[in-house]
Amino acid sequence: MISRYAGIAPNGDLLLIRRLCEKFRGRRFLHVNSTREGGGVAEILQRMVPLLAAMGIDAKWEVIEGDPFFFEITKKIHNALQGNSEYITEAMWEHYFEVSKRNSETIDLEAEMVLVHDPQPAPLIEFRKGGHWVWRCHIDVSEPQKVIFDFLAFYARKYESAVFSIPRFSKALGIDEFIIPPSIDPMSEKNRELAPQEIGETLDKFGIGRERPILLQVSRFDRFKDPTGVIEAYRMVKRYNDCILILAGSPASDDPEGEQVLAEVREYAKGDPDVHILLLPPFSDRDINALQRAANVILQKSLREGFGLTVSEAMWKGKPVVGGAAGGIPLQIIHGVTGFLVYSVEGAAFRIRQILNDPAMGRAIGAAAREYVRNNFLITRQMRDYLAVWYFLDQGRQNVLRV
Amino acid sequence: MEGQTPPFDFQQTISILKSTGKKARNVRELREGISAASDGAIFHHTYQYFLKGHVLEYTNDFAQWAGESLEESTLSEHLSNIDPYTFKSTGEVRKELLRVIDRYLEQFPEPRSVVPGGEFYFNESVALIFFEGVRARNLAEFLMALKYVDPGCVYFHFYEARSRINPLTDDFSKWFEEGLGREELARKVRAIDPFMHSIEGIREIIGELVEHELRSEMEGGIA
Predict the structure, then answer these.
(1) pTM of the prediction?
(2) Chain A within 8 Å of B14 (Cβ-Cβ)?
């Protein structure tokens, strides 16, 4: 399976994965999270666990079960870690722990390496049966509600190591902390190469012509993604360069504000036939892929962002991306090299005009962007990093390791 | 002679980022952070700067942050001028960094802070070193291999070697000289300024030097 990535992922990553998998052959690597489907964590585990298994690792993925009250509590914890004000009672914390206790009785926690994803299953550490335990935090905890983070840190500090997505999200917990950014799978339906007719089918389906340059933003309809700012930037560009704008996103079922934002965006774009607002159903991966490949400039004008993997998805397709300098976007876009970072609507408009007026520069940035993603944000790199953390812990925590 | 020499085994280093959880918002906090940081963190932010695969206008992470985030151009220039390979240890590099920052703080005692999100994060790294699986027994094989090995491989033999063997040399020139007896080629490779090129730039220059050496030899043989 891993050989499918030869010629796509860096050779060194594949070589290191093979070497480390040889060392860990037959040993158990357990991932635990709280959902089998939906969200970036499940998406990457669906693809990574079979890859590890095919390399001889006894790779397992377990999902904890909880009642609605438990998920209500963990939603509050999640929001509080991202800075919202939440109140969690002692009874709630007790229930949070009890659910982990119940899961520890049904999930086989015996493994040489256990990676526990996000806060929901974090108390499982209390039921450790040996092996190396690492807590993987995917969310932004840079400005959390302190009292709630402190409670969670009580569990986090019991792990041998923690993993965060970017340095800014990390905390001084007093244990080894690694920075492992998320990744995209170049073989997935959202990122695989498409034939020209597949791209054409998607454009025809949505009634989008190819005569004029296409600007695209793929994101859910959320104010932090600044969809109206994108329309404003497009209007500024349109004074100089005729183009069309596509705003494509799925309805955010867990976001009550989503409908309202969508209505605002529709109202804002009203009367302009060159603004296409596409509400894509779940599992529209191939259409998103096709739209990204058809676009001339891709935007991710976020005002606040997690990691913003849609940026890497666009960059992987060799497209110049104009991104807001928020969350993990500056980690992906090296300004002027692999894309442009912007801080305002005016900045976005200016960079779009630069790219449209200098297609050779746009192509050069797109090529550098693809190479940057190849070296830094493919699933093989993330797999390599997880195995490397396991090796680090297994070899007595040396900072220089021979493999 | 080449037949009797040991082959050149291409090795590679891949580093995994470790966070210390410590950060700095202004030059004073940067100074405190550098003063308290582990040797591993100083090594990571200076010696390993080139492992990132691209070079902006700077030669280490501290200079880049001072220039890009703090917009303190003078400090950035002074920090960029520090060559870690001229110091005997990471401890001495740390002293030099502090000396440069202290001199700056004497002139500008109240430096401004960065906007939230622009802080400097002190990191370390774990390096995994492994055999790339590519071996060159002569100069022609070396040239072929150099074109295809990963950037981490060029880093390991050209940059990392300086902290391993000698600040003024690297694995490539060492093999050219000691293994192949090609002193002139070794001298030219040692003359490359390590701070003025990206890893890809280094690969290109060494490739051209080796190609030139091979071509001269072939043309000499024909004549």
Answers:
(1) 0.91
(2) yes
What's the burial of B85, exposed, middle or buried (CB within 10 Å: 0-12/13-18/19+)? middle
**Phi, psi (5° rounding) for residue A323?**
-125, 150
Q: Do B14 and A399 touch (CB under 8 A)?
A: no
Q: Do the Cβ atoms of A74 and A34 come closer than 8 Å? A: yes
ipTM rounded to 2 decimals: 0.86
CA proximity to B16, closest of A314, A395, A130, A139: A395
Residue A180: which of A394, A393, A382, A398 has the closest Cα?
Answer: A382
* Strand-strand pairing, B8-24 and A176-179: antiparallel
Does the CB of A1 have a partner CB in chain B at under 8 Å?
no
- B46 lies within 8 A of chain A by CB: no
CA distance A180 to chain B (A): 7
Phi/psi-derived region of residue A77, left when phi > 0, alpha when psi is between -120 and 50, beta in every other case: alpha
Which of A24-33, A83-92, A231-240 is the least confident region?
A83-92
CB contact under 8 A, B18 and A179: yes
Domains of chain A as residue ranges with CATH: 2-183+378-394 (3.40.50.2000), 196-376 (3.40.50.2000)
Cβ within 8 Å, pair B129-A400: yes
B135 touches chain A (CB under 8 A): no
| Closest CA of chain A from B122, distance in Å | 9
CA A98 to chain centre: 30
Q: Which residue is closest to B123 within chain A, CA to CA?
A: A167
Per-residue pLDDT tens for B44-98?
A: 999 888 777 655 678 899 999 999 899 999 999 999 999 888 888 889 999 999 9
